Request: fold
Amino acid sequence: MRRLVIACTVAPILGLAAMPARPEAADSLEALRAEITSLKAEQAERDARLHVSGDFRLRYEGNYGDVDADDWDRGVLRARLHADYAVTRWFTVGGRLATGDPDDPNSTDVTLSNFADDLDFSLDQAYARVDAGDLRAWGGKFPLPFVRTDVVWDGDVNPQGAGGTYRLPLARGGAIQVSGLYFLVDESVAGSDSSMVGAQVGIDAPLGEALRFDLSVAGYDYSLRSVAGADAGDFRSNLIGPDGRYVSDFNLLDVIAGASWTGLAEHWPVRLLAEYVHNTGARTPGDTAYNLELSAGRAREKGDWRFGYGFSQAEVDAVLAAFSHDNTTLPTNYRQHTLYVNYVPLDNLTLDATYYHYRPYSAEFVGAGDPGDWLDRVRLNFLVAF
Reply:
């Protein structure tokens, strides 16, 4: 009797399981699967179009050597978050959030102080970009399109206006690059604007199996008619007249030449760089800057080391101090030695130690209370990038 009951119960279930699925049900299931696959593909495409990156840097800085003042040190941090989205294959929009004073164009650093007040963040980049083959063009506030060093352009300066770069590939991996920039420095409603028009032509070419040569020649023509948006941090060490305007005009010739040799080992490249800057618009003899750098190694992958030495000298109106380096307290009118070492203990982590030994170049342009002796600045950096 028990076997009969079990058989009567199981048989209908097995019969139902053996019944073929209705055609309309199968079609609905297949359509659902296709829709899910399509949604996944669309999401993957959107993810591929969005690129997010950033970095965080923590720094200790010590300042020594001023016989008229006490030694002092500080903690400094910087945080940046960048994102861009490819609207099409050729059109991209992007921006970057960064710490720092929004009124300071050449620094995103924040000194740890002020009773632990919250940090200031601002957009230091917001741009539209077009990529058409070997041509790339920007509009808005975007990365500097030129080959540069800190003598003329601090690494944190992001011009606003319009710019572009065309790169023409050459045989054996070389290239010719032409870059242009219209930089709206200070817009004025009541009068003429301040702006800069700049262009740079460069070549990068191999000279053998392990040797490469590069040369970039740039011209920057400033028209500084409006200075209403400038403050003491923008004028800095350039000469200012009784009317509160720059004494000199700034029409810069900037020549950068470099050679790289990889014959020692792939992860130990040796690079020599030389730079000459001349301001043909200066109304003072202080119109020239020089820079020389020698480095060995790289700081790219886990275990990499890089060592370097640099000597630079800039006269008082050789460059526009508003956009030159902020590595020391002297953006112009300085003579400076720099030593540095980088080490990459882990992927995306770099440890850096940099030593600056510097002094004013000309005592004629040293203001009251400014030091005239050799000064020392030490920086220890902890940098994470993602």
